[in-house]
Amino acid sequence: MTRRRENEKGIALLVTLLILVLIVALVYEIFRIGARSAQTGAYGRDSIRCALLAEAGTGAARIALRQDARDNSFDTLDEIWSRPAPPIELGDGEIRVVVEDEDRKIDLNRIMLSMGNAPDERRLAIFRRLLDTLAIDRAVADAVVDWLDNDDTPRVGGAESAYYLALPYPYRAKNDLFDTIGELRLVRGVTREAYEKLLPFVTAHSSGKVNLNTAPKEVLMSLSAGTDLDEVGAIDAKTADEIIEYRKDHPFTKTDEINNVSPFLRDLNNRTLLFKELADVRSTFFHVRSEGEVAGTIRTVDAVGARLGNEIQWRFWRLE
To answer: Which residue pairs, CB below 8 angstroms and at least 24 apart, start in 157-166?
Structure first.
């Protein structure tokens, strides 16, 4: 009887210990789930606040662009929207905004004529000149045309759906305009290295004319491509540098002021339609990248807007 009672006591103690272990484990699990939920809730709260801050940044950019439209009829790299802006502190959050005009770049969508069945040879030549300047295979130009045109007949260096459908991860040629410049990575021959080289100089959203006040050297050099310019000559690196140096103190208020830079550019302007048809002194499309940060959490609005009069119409908007 004594041994039996001792066994019963031992079993009771064991059951008690097991219950205590279960209780401790349950309390720990509840605490862990609660802590995770609190962290998730905090992240969610901060994420929403960051998104609101980023959107506020695009609002500030919009105000700056509208104010600039009222101030003058040309755009340069030394204006309220184009100057580097310091971070904006708002409570315990921070906003960082960068604005860049897209009219400083070559618009790939403008390579195609409006019917979409053939390229604009002048603009195609400009893109090829840019590829040469950046040391990228010229075949990329043919591949871009095939991506844009509305047929399935590949050009010599290009590719249509038959090529893309044979890839390990198949897809079809778009046969339409680029919605974003990121689509360029889908085009045959556009490696990551080539894409990074092209990114500062090409766009899918612009007026179709290059702003002489903001265009980089590589774009200025590309503008004079085309067989009708053979007798006049091309804009080389030295001439592009002269344009950039001149506009620092004398921003162009109209395209004919290119005549003041050098005798060669005066001759080029007077004997061709290059600056009248392909250049401008004002920008219409702007790329806005606005970051909102709170406690290490960052959300970004990546947007492209068209400035029409005093209004900004967003053509592309992505929250990251």
So the answer is: 157/189, 158/188, 159/187, 159/188, 163/188, 164/188
Q: What class has domain 114-194?
A: mainly alpha
Give domain limits for the chain: 114-194
Place of tokens 């200025």: 220
Query: Cα separation of 33 and 215, whole Å?
Result: 55
pLDDT confidence tier of residue 37, bands split at 50, 70 and 90: very low
pTM of the full predicted structure? 0.82
Pair of tokens at residue 110: 């403008």
Q: At what angle do helices 121-133 and 139-148 cross, to 10 degrees?
A: 140
DSSP string, 10-65: HHHHHHHHHHHHHHHHHHHHHHHHHHHHHHHHHHHHHHHHHHHHHHHHHHHHHHHH
